[in-house]
Amino acid sequence: MVLGSVSDWLSPSIPNKLVDDGRKARSSAMESVRSLPDMKEKRAAQEVEEVDHEMARPPYIHAILAGGIGGTTGDMLMHSLDTVKTRQQGDPHMPPKYTSMGNTYHTIWRQEGIARGLYGGVQPAFVGSFLGTCAFFGTYEWSKRLMIDNGITPSISYFAAGLFADLAAAPVYVPSEVLKTRLQLQGRHNNPFFNSGYNYRSTLDAARTIVRTEGFGALFYGYKATLWRDLPFSALQFAFYEEEREMAKRYMGSQNIGLPLEILTAASAGGMAGVITTPLDVVKTRIQTQQPSTSLNPAPTPKAPLSPSSTSKHSTPPISSKASTPSNRPISTSSPSTTLKAHGAATLDTSSVIRGLRIIYQTEGIWGCFRGVGPRGVWTSVQSGTMLVLYQTLLKYFEQMSNPDAAL
Length: 408
Known about the structure:
The protein is an all-alpha fold. It has one domain (58-287, 338-407): Mitochondrial carrier domain (Mitochondrial carrier fold). 72% of the residues lie in helices and 0% in strands. The protein has helices at residues 2-10, 13-50, 52-55, 60-77, 79-90, 101-112, 114-118, 122-149, 154-186, 203-214, 223-252, 259-276, 278-289, 293-296, 316-323, 353-364, 366-369, 373-402, 404-407.
């Protein structure tokens, strides 16, 4: 009896314990099952964040058109400031005619006007900008996607894609850059306010004169120097831009970062890249605006044996300007001992970028390498901001036009 009552008293506790354990197991299993969707959502959100740069790949034609329109708009908007930068970097006068950015802008506007002064060389700049940026953005999107699809780190892909894109755009861009730079430096035809050494009647006349007197290859003067400047500039610009946009998206917690952050990321990326590459821009401008005829034509230099007193700034310039062709550039390529060094006109008797940088640094110091950094920093910031914000805006517009249902 005692054993029976003890067994009856003990036996109910065992099933109850098993039942309780079973309920707990089932409840924990149910909780884990319920938590699976949350874990999947978190994992999916992480994956979306990781591949965000590839979630909305625009069609190539959209990227090409948006880039061409955005890039050309930015270049045209800032062309006058680019003229200021070119005048400061290529100013052959001593003492310098142009000093600060504001002084240069006001002087050109007051003396030469807008169309022929501040916007000199705008026609080749327009054509070269549109064709060049179309080629640039098409190549950039293609190479970026190719590298990311093959497992290359996005930051490296952005940097390398910028290099490849500018390499593809350079054959179109460089001839227009030569024409634009010379016409910017010249100003208007028969300019009485600034003696640049050039006197072209128009863009077509400039192209014909250069080909006739210097050969077709002269349209590609400074090709290597342009690549030295633009390849690192584009690589840095787009590496900065893509990384800053990713940071802005994480900060906002959304794919749409808003117009203020779009402008900030685009402008800061271009400005930083522009300031860093200013020395390369100085060398490029000097090489493209000096004439090889000065170094290849030593015949009209009987003044070399003269005494130092006869090589003053009052006697040398008239001889050089009349003994040579009208397109002769006052940037000297003769011996430093027989030539008066002008402000901003070091004796670059070379097409080597490294040697050119060394010459400028030795003769003008570190600030000579950064001549025009103010206009260039402002120009690249505003131009980059305009181009990249328009690029993103036009991509969204093209997508809405191609998928009207998705916009609803």
